[in-house]
Amino acid sequence: MIRTDTFLSTKLYKCWTAKTIFMVGGAAATKFIVVTGGVLSGLGKGVAAASIGNLVAAGGNKVIAIKCDGYLNVDPGTMNPVEHGEVFVLDDGGEVDMDFGHYERFLGITCSRDWNLTMGKVFETIRTKERRGDFLGKTVQLIPHVSDEIRNHFHHVATTEQADVVLIEVGGTVGDLENELYIEACRALGKEVGEENILYVHLTYVPIPAGVSEQKSKPTQQSVAQLRERGIEPHIIIGRCSEYLTPAIREKISTFCGVAKEAVITGLDVSYVYELPLIFAKEGMIDLLQDELGVHAKLRPNWIELVQSLQSPKQEVTIALCGKYTALEDSYASIVEALHHCRANLHTNITLSFIDTTDITSCADAQNLLKGVDGVIVPGGFGARGVEGKIHVVRCCRENNIPFLGICYGLQLAVIEFARNVCGLKNASSTEFNEQTPDPVVDILPEQKQIVNKGGTMRLGAYAADLQKGSLVRQLYGGKPKASERHRHRYEVNPAYHEILQKNGLVFSGLSPDGTLVEFIELPNHPYFVGTQAHPELKSKLEEPAPLFYGLIKACLETSSS
Ligand code: GLN
């Protein structure tokens, strides 16, 4: 712990002895990096944790990430995205916190649902154990029973995954009642594994108040004091700030918060989150990880180049995102990131315009709003609000050769538009928002009909599709015969209407392996009209943009230059 010179030597000594013992014993212990936050929510704890993970994973370590959320929902699947941000879906079907998007994108790993703890899950487990008699004779208490359950879960995940390094992000800010048990579990974890195997990182806010024009350390001091009250001494403090921390503020934070000057790191405001690992590296994080935890870290190959490309685009397109959760950009976080990945790989500035479709009542309205737009995305969604407006938007794209990508609900609405205006089924609709429709071209999946519970019951997770030879979609997936993407829906294109849709020219470019579910559609004789029942944005990476997004932006570049 580099708080003072004496502390430094103590920790390095322990580290050295620990390593010697491991070498004799053969296997190295798992290392834990605990990331907590203070002062404000929304400082980017997930991105900060993922950026540390990015450096550690590049150093050749198997890193996994655990996120602890304080709410009593079992998972975020039942929450409104405008309140909580996007619900991220994993290959295994887990509906998890959107920070898992950062972990997957920054660490290049596939996460598992078990890695997202919520108080809902923790209490569910405790209650089951209590009823089973696991605690017979005992009074079951928050401490130690619940906090031990959390700590044991950390170990369980670490062992199952054979992780070298486990990142633990505690949600919220220190002092939040709902996160106290996680903080206590992390404190106890440190005592258990020994300080050579754990690193506490605390993210705070360093404001520069107007009129004062000076970086201020008091909020950091107060938040670290709260952390210390709970028995955790941070090793590294990241100060989120609009500029690099000055030597004076580093000194002050060091003195008042008990960390070395070198361990006060700037969490600089950045335009693109991908810049943060580079900032951390510049601020000395790689050495700190080595010296403090004995973990080798480095920058990922290509990362610098891709970030440079993000920062200096050479061309320009405008994309309209037409949905109803446009009030909060986080509702579409993975789509925004997928577009950033295209930006980096196609050297193109992508201006994103959020269009709320609730008030669009005609094609003319849509056309008006789409003036100056090069391409359109209709994203996933639920329910009736804004739906007819989206259908007008789709029609406008189809008839005016505007590149279009429909995602999940976007595909379903594109099929409805096609049925109404090309196949002549004027009242075609989805039973999701019109149960009386004479032509339910989109209908509930048969296996969904009996389901009553709402939580975790959609068609969730990764499913493979067979891609049609010669289709644009197959070409975009590198000519491969199969593509696997993640899903989250209850409705599908009704098989009873497959024939009429195809006869009228809609191409099913990807079907489920049994041929019953439409996973991808496209229209020939259009610069780019593609839809998917899946959410390809969830697997997009800076080094490997999602093919359908990449295809959309390329098409926009081609049509806007022709
Ligand atoms: N509401 C649609 C369904 O449940 C689409 C879901 C989505 O877009 N994720 O099938």
Describe this entry's structure for a reader.
The chain has 562 residues and is of the alpha/beta class. It has two domains: 31-305, Rossmann fold; 313-561, Rossmann fold, CATH 3.40.50. The chain has 19 helices and 21 strands. The chain has a nine-stranded mixed beta sheet, sandwiched between helices. It has a seven-stranded parallel beta sheet with strand order 5-2-6-1-7-8-9, with helices on both faces. Helix 13 (333-346) crosses helix 19 (547-561) and helix 15 packs across helix 16. The radius of gyration is 25 Å and the shape is globular. The termini are far apart. Mean pLDDT is 92; it is low at 1-26. Bound molecules: glutamine. The site of glutamine (GLN) has 10 residues, from strand 17.
Small molecules bound in the structure, each named once: glutamine
Strand neighbour order, sheet with most strands: 11-10-12-13-21-20-19-16-17
- Rg, rounded, reads 25 Å
**Distance separating the two termini:** 61 Å
How do the strands and helices of this protein lay out in sequence?
Elements: H1 5-25, E1 31-37, H2 45-58, E2 63-69, H3 81-84, E3 88-89, E4 95-96, H4 99-107, E5 116-118, H5 119-132, H6 142-160, E6 165-170, H7 180-193, E7 198-205, H8 218-229, E8 236-241, H9 247-257, E9 264-268, H10 276-282, H11 285-293, H12 303-311, E10 315-323, H13 333-346, E11 348-356, H14 363-369, E12 375-378, H15 387-399, E13 404-407, H16 409-421, E14 428-430, E15 439-444, E16 459-467, H17 472-476, E17 482-489, E18 491-493, H18 498-503, E19 507-511, E20 518-522, E21 529-532, H19 547-561
Parallel strand pairs: 1-6, 1-7, 2-5, 2-6, 7-8, 8-9, 10-11, 10-12, 12-13, 13-21, 14-15
Antiparallel strand pairs: 3-4, 15-18, 16-17, 16-19, 19-20, 20-21
Helix pairs in contact: 2-4, 2-10, 5-6, 6-7, 12-13, 13-19, 14-15, 15-16
The structure holds glutamine (GLN).
